[in-house]
Write a structure and sequence with these properties.
The protein has 267 residues and is mainly α. 72% of the residues lie in helices and 0% in strands. The two termini are 57 Å apart. It has two domains: 132 residues; 101 residues, no CATH class.
Length: 267
């Protein structure tokens, strides 16, 4: 909408009229528009990689990607249709204004058109933000898939014990660093997987002591190696999860009949 066309002389701050300050604000928003175009999405690519996908096991990170993509898909679907509806509204108002209208009817429609175009610009920023997140997540998905290869729901089920144990071990290490002992909640998590918390606590205390030595690396490579080696030992060799299920009278293996596998798509 042309602000000059509907200019008023209402007093505002700085010895200027309201319209003058509105125009200055519009210019300020235009000048800083690139900020909205940078921070119009949920997370930077760095945040997605370092903060959101923080699990050691790739399937847990893929689960996080799946959850985020589901939310982003819903947000994009809503935003894109609102954008389409707003486009139609703008087109209709422009069509109305191309004809002969009574003065006050025209003025009201011009105001509506200005509001609609402003809303359209905001919606486009939101749509762009959803697109950035979706494409970033798809890129991260492909990177993890290149690492793990083709997989289906059965593969995820089979990896659950190790994935949960790795998560619990990392959290237990944080407990020991903070208080010297594994917290009650984390002990329960380990027991649910089938692991003796006392033995794990002793190993972690030794590991944490090594972390504080001068020759210890600044990075987290030793942490990842320690957790992965221990989870491999407990799940693959000792099969603590299988023994736990046997004690409870339950099958350790999942029922593949209830999982979607790679051949289902061919049916």
């Amino acid at each position: 909408m042309d602000l000059q066309k509907h200019k008023t002389n209402l007093a505002s701050f700085g010895g200027k009229s309201l319209d003058d300050n509105l125009q200055k604000a519009e210019l300020a928003l235009q000048d800083t528009k690139h900020l909205q175009e940078i921070w119009n999405h949920s997370h930077s690519q760095w945040s997605w990689r370092h903060l959101n996908l923080h699990y050691l096991h790739p399937f847990k990170n893929l689960r996080q990607i799946a959850a985020e993509l589901s939310r982003k898909s819903d947000a994009l679907n809503e935003a894109r249709w609102k954008y389409a509806e707003q486009n139609v509204k703008v087109a209709k108002l422009e069509d109305d204004l191309s004809g002969d209208l009574e003065k006050w009817t025209r003025l009201k429609k011009e105001i509506k058109l200005g509001k609609s175009k402003s809303g359209l610009a905001r919606m486009l920023i939101a749509v762009d933000g959803c697109l950035k997140d979706i494409l970033s997540l798809q890129d991260l998905y492909q990177q993890i898939k290149d690492q793990v290869g083709e997989f289906d729901e059965n593969d995820v089920e089979e990896a659950e014990s190790k994935a949960h144990l790795q998560r619990s071990l990392v959290q237990s290490i944080r407990d020991v660093r903070q208080s010297g002992s594994i917290t009650k909640g984390e002990q329960e998590y380990l027991e649910q997987i089938g692991v003796n918390p006392g033995k794990v606590q002793a190993l972690i205390r030794n590991y944490v002591a090594d972390e504080e030595k001068d020759e210890a690396p600044w990075g987290v490579e030793e942490l990842m190696l320690f957790v992965r080696r221990l989870s491999d030992e407990l799940i693959d060799n000792y099969q603590v999860d299988h023994k736990r299920m046997k004690l409870q009278g339950l099958m350790a293996e999942h029922n593949s009949e209830y999982s979607k596998n790679g051949t289902d798509a061919k049916l």
